[in-house]
Design a protein that fits this description.
This protein is 54% helix and 21% strand. It is of the alpha+beta class and 441 residues long. Helix 9 runs antiparallel to helix 10.
């Protein structure tokens, strides 16, 4: 690196130093504590009271949107998530100043643009909000935006395990069915099935049984005999809902997000080279949080349905980070080489300046721990078909051993024939309990 380039980056480097001694996780700790205690409104206040720098705008908006949803502020949540979407489009991670800074002070100099799965889940949470607001047409728009995002994802992710999002496809299909679009629904269900099948071995989420029955039922409804035979053979099912009977019934769909997404930390080491320079290398890692909930049952009078896992964000985040580790390590090595030259240049001025520069480079080389931590760790779904009319619903959370943990009374719900009634719950911790949301049919 020449001296002119070095001088042009000093202001950026010093600014990064001021913020480099703490991580995003440190700033989010009190926010997480408020959520753990069941107070998402207070968590929003804490997040707003300690804003990050311009590079944290996207991740702050994502976390703010998730917190507002937990607090039942659906319209405000969607405003935050839409702002995050716009901010993502503005991020240019290849800008000259960021590229220079990243060679000296680490990954945190880049503006956060969202991980691939976070860019998809942004639209999923917006769809949840619209369903809670009773606006299924707006939720359908988010399903279409998910499709556009996933088309780009398939092109961008190359050989990554995450080229599709099966849960996002599955929810899109349910929205299409609710709006009376079986052809669109079948396309989404087919894509969901293929994605679950492709990812199941690494992510541990099998093709949900309810999705298998949906495919067979719609194949019957649309006269796709060859597809029905193929899927029946693949699933090994002998029975599934009759299309006419399915249309006469009402359908409650309960989706619950449990826990919090894994916390991102940093791990590193320091080495001393033959010229006495000390170097630090820091890389991010995910720390899974304790799993208490193992699922739930949706109960309607004498009927009940056991929830199935439909998305494991904890596993997905860790796998995606593992796929990035080679590139992160290569950039860390590049920073080490540049920092050596910076230290040597400072030493030419004086030994004290060289020592100060060495201390500086060690202090600011931090891993990027920014993440959308207010997402759940897992999503579960339970569906139950009932005669139209009023039904009293409840859900019972179960521990990983299957033992009941807590019962949540959902009250009396009016279910209409042929319609899907979406309900949502968010369970974070035993202290925080759960917060039930219900969408309108």
């Amino acid at each position: 690196m020449n001296r002119a380039l070095s001088r042009s980056a000093w202001a950026l480097v010093f600014a990064a130093f001021l913020a480099g001694c703490s991580t995003y996780g440190d700033r989010m700790a009190p926010v997480e504590a408020a959520v753990d205690e069941g107070n998402p409104g207070r968590a929003v206040e804490l997040l707003d009271a300690d804003p990050g720098g311009p590079g944290d705008r996207v991740v702050d908006l994502l976390n703010r949107g998730a917190l507002l949803r937990m607090a039942g502020e659906y319209e405000a949540s969607n405003r935050a998530l839409e702002s995050a979407y716009d901010a993502m489009a503005e991020v240019d991670p290849l800008s000259v100043s960021e590229s220079i800074g990243s060679l000296m002070v680490g990954e945190t100099v880049f503006a956060y643009a969202g991980e691939p799965h976070e860019r998809v889940l942004l639209h999923l949470l917006m769809a949840f909000n619209y369903l809670d607001l009773g606006d299924a047409d707006a939720a359908r728009v988010e399903a279409l935006r998910v499709d556009l995002r996933l088309q780009r994802l398939a092109a961008e992710q190359g050989r990554s395990v995450y080229r599709q999002d099966p849960f996002a496809r599955y929810l899109s299909g349910l929205i299409f069915e609710h709006l009376g679009e079986p052809d669109q629904a079948l396309v989404a269900y087919r894509q969901a099935f293929e994605a679950y099948r492709e990812q199941s071995e690494r992510l541990g989420v099998a093709v949900p049984g309810s999705l298998q029955k949906d495919l067979l039922r719609l194949a019957d409804q649309l006269g796709l005999d060859d597809d029905r035979v193929e899927w029946q053979d693949a699933f090994g099912l002998e029975q599934w809902p009759d299309p006419a009977e399915h249309g006469d019934k009402a359908h409650a769909v309960m989706i619950a997000g449990v826990g919090l997404a894994p916390r991102k930390g940093e791990q590193g080491f320091m080495v001393q080279d033959h010229r006495g320079r000390v170097h630090s290398v820091a890389l991010p890692y995910y720390e899974s949080r304790q799993r208490v909930v193992g699922g739930f049952r949706l109960i309607a009078e004498a009927d009940s349905a056991t929830a199935e896992p439909v998305h494991d964000l904890d596993a997905l985040a860790r796998i995606l980070l593992n796929e990035q580790q080679g590139a992160l390590a290569a950039r860390a090595l590049g920073r080490l080489l540049v920092q050596k030259e910076m230290i040597d240049q400072a030493r030419e001025a004086s030994p004290i300046a060289g020592l100060a520069m060495n201390v500086f480079t060690v202090a600011v080389d931090r891993a990027d721990t920014r993440t959308w931590g207010m997402l759940p760790a897992q999503y579960y779904m339970a569906r139950i078909s009932l005669p139209p009319g009023e039904h009293r619903l409840a859900l019972v959370y179960e521990g990983r051993s299957g033992r009941p943990l807590t019962r949540v009374d959902l009250g009396t719900v009016e279910l209409k024939a042929g319609a899907y009634h979406f309900l949502f719950d968010r369970w974070v911790s035993p202290r925080g309990g759960s917060v039930t949301r219900r969408g309108e049919p």
